[in-house]
Amino acid sequence: MSLLLTLLLSGIVACCGHPGDSVPRLLLVSFDGFRADYLETYHLPHLQEFIEDGVLVKQVTNAFITKTFPNHYSIVTGLYEESHGIVANDMYDADTKKTFSQFNDSDPFWWNEAVPIWVTNQQQGNGTSAAAMWPGTDVKINNATPHFFMKYNFSVKFQERVEKIVTWLNSSDPVVNFATLYWEEPDVSGHKYGPNDTENMRKVLEKVDNHVGYLKSKLKASGLWDSINVIITSDHGMATCSPKKLIVLDGCIDRSNYVLIDKSPVAAVLPKKNKKYVYNLLKKCGNHMKVYLKEEIPERFHYRHNKRIQPIILVADEGWTIVQNESLLKLGDHGYDNALPSMHPFLAARGPAFHRGYKQSTINNVDIYPMMCHILGLTPQPHNGTFSNTKCLLTDQWCINLPEAIGIVIGVLMVLTTFTCIIIISKNRVAPPRPFSRLQLQSDDDDPLIG
Ligand SMILES: *[C@@H]1O[C@H](CO)[C@@H](O)[C@H](O)[C@H]1NC(C)=O
Ligand SMILES: *[C@@H]1O[C@H](CO)[C@@H](O)[C@H](O)[C@H]1NC(C)=O
Ligand SMILES: *[C@@H]1O[C@H](CO)[C@@H](O)[C@H](O)[C@H]1NC(C)=O
Ligand SMILES: *[C@@H]1O[C@H](CO)[C@@H](O)[C@H](O)[C@H]1NC(C)=O
Ligand SMILES: *[C@@H]1O[C@H](CO)[C@@H](O)[C@H](O)[C@H]1NC(C)=O
Ligand SMILES: *[C@@H]1O[C@H](CO)[C@@H](O)[C@H](O)[C@H]1NC(C)=O
Ligand SMILES: *[C@@H]1O[C@H](CO)[C@@H](O)[C@H](O)[C@H]1NC(C)=O
Ligand SMILES: [Zn+2]
C-alpha cells in the first residue's frame, strides 16, 4: 500500500513540467526607492493584481541608515548594518585605508562580515542561485558568487535583466532555486523630481508597473508562474528636499578640521585631530540635525558597533540636506531616521508559499531573511530578524492575529479562574487546615545542596 502511494507520488512529481519542480523556488525583486504610499497614491494595476493574488505588508521598517547598499544587504542577510558591515554607500576603513563607493564596491573585504542568502543557498541546498543584479551579487563573498550573475551595469534594460533571470530560473542543469532582480527606479526619478511631483512620479511608477506585468508574462511563458514564489519589495522610501532646507557645514567649521566620509542626510565625520572640538562646533550648526558621537548614537538605530561607523555622525531632520557649500541638486532624498514613514518601502509576495489576499501592517526588513530561508528549507545564519513576524504571510504556518490572540487569552483566563474557584471551594470543604504544613515547607527550603 505505502509502496503504491510512493510510486504514485513520484509519478506525479516526475510527470508534470519542469525538472526540479519539487524544489521550492524564490525570486526576490527590488524596485529601488519604492515608498510604501506610492501603492495608494497611484493606479498600478499589475502590482494590484499581484497583491490580490498574494500578500501585502503595507510598511516595511528598514534599517538605519536608510540607504541603498546597506538595506539591500540587510534584506539578504537579516542583519542590522552594524552587523553586516555595509554601513553606508560611501565608507572608509581607517586600518586598511580602503574606501568603498557605489563605483568601487567589488572588494570582498567590505562584504565578508556576513554571508548573504545566495551563498548559503549554494552551500547548504541542492540548488544554485542566480542574480540579475542586486548590490553584492557580482562580488565574491565568502569566496562565492551566485552560479549565474551579471556585472552591475545600470544601462542594461529591465527587459534584458528579466530575460536573463527567467532563462536561468528555467535551467535544469544546474537547478536555480533562488534568484534576485534589481531595478533602479523609482529611486532615480524620486531624487530628481522629488516624491511630491505627482506628474513625473506617476509616469515612472506606471513604467515600473508595466515592468511587473512584463516579468509576470515572461514567467508565465516559461511555465514557472504557478510554481515560483515571487517577493517584490524595496530598500527605502523618499522624502521631499528643498533648497531652503540646507545645513551648510562651512558656515560652522573649517574643512581642515575633518574629512567628510559620507554626506547627506546622514553625514559621517572623521575628525582630523581634536574630536571634542569638531563635535562642539558641529553642535552649534543650526537645529535641523542631530549630532552624535559614535557612542551616543541611539540604541534603536543598531548603528554603533562597527569600526566603519565614523567617530561623529550627523543625522539631518526629514527633508533637510547637509552640504559643505554646494547648492542643492536633488529634490528628493533618503537615508533619514528609519522610524519615519516616508523612509519605508512595502513588501508584496505571491506563490505557493504565500496566502492569497492577506494584508499585514508591518514587518522589519531583517525579518525577510528568515522567511526566505524557511521557504527554501535553509538553516539561517545568525541574524536579527524574527521569523514569527512573517508567519501570517505563509501557508504552512499556524498564525493567530492580535484580536484572536486576545480572545484566546481572555478565554483561557476565564476557564482558569473558574477552575481555581472550584478547587478552592472544594478544598475548603474537604480539607481542614493543617497546623504544621508551614513549618514543613520551611525546613524543605533549607536543602543544603542548593546554597
Ligand atoms: C577601490 O577600492 C580599493 C580598496 O577597496 C582600492 O584599493 C582602490 O584603489 C579603489 N579604486 C579606485 C578607483 O578608487
Ligand atoms: C536536499 O536534498 C536532500 C535529498 O533529496 C533532502 O533530504 C534535503 O532536504 C534537501 N535540502 C534542501 C535544503 O532542500
Ligand atoms: C553596459 O550595458 C550597455 C547596454 O547594454 C552596454 O552598451 C555597455 O557596453 C555596458 N557597459 C559595460 C561596462 O559593460
Ligand atoms: C508633499 O505632499 C503632501 C501631500 O500633498 C503634503 O502633505 C506635504 O506637505 C508635501 N510635502 C512637502 C515637503 O511639500
Ligand atoms: C523552459 O524550459 C522548458 C523545458 O525545460 C522549455 O520547454 C521551455 O522552452 C523553456 N522556456 C524558456 C522561456 O526558455
Ligand atoms: C565651495 O568651496 C570650494 C573649496 O573651498 C570652493 O572652491 C568653491 O568655489 C566653493 N563653492 C561655492 C559655491 O561657494
Ligand atoms: C544581530 O545579530 C548578530 C548575529 O547574531 C549579533 O551579533 C548582534 O548582537 C545582533 N544585534 C542585536 C542588536 O541584537
Ligand atoms: Zn535605494
Structure characterization notes:
Its EC number is 3.6.1.29. GO terms for molecular function: bis(5'-adenosyl)-triphosphatase activity; metal ion binding. One of its GO terms (cellular component) is plasma membrane. Keywords: Blood coagulation, Cell membrane, Disulfide bond, Glycoprotein, Hemostasis, Hydrolase, Membrane, Metal-binding, Signal, Transmembrane, Transmembrane helix, Zinc. Helix 8 (158-169) runs parallel beside helix 10 (198-221). The protein has two domains: 2-10 and 22-79 and 114-239 and 337-393, Alkaline Phosphatase, subunit A, CATH 3.40.720; 246-333, Gyrase A, domain 2 (2-Layer Sandwich), CATH 3.30.1360. The strands form five sheets. The chain has an eight-stranded mixed beta sheet with strand order 6-5-7-1-8-17-2-18, with helices on both faces. 33% of the residues lie in helices and 18% in strands. It is globular, with a radius of gyration of 27 Å. The longest helix is centred in the C-terminal third of the chain and has 29 residues, at 402-430. The chain has 14 helices and 18 strands. It is α/β, with parallel strands linked by helices. The structure holds 2-acetamido-2-deoxy-beta-D-glucopyranose (7 copies) and zinc ion. One 2-acetamido-2-deoxy-beta-D-glucopyranose binds next to loops.
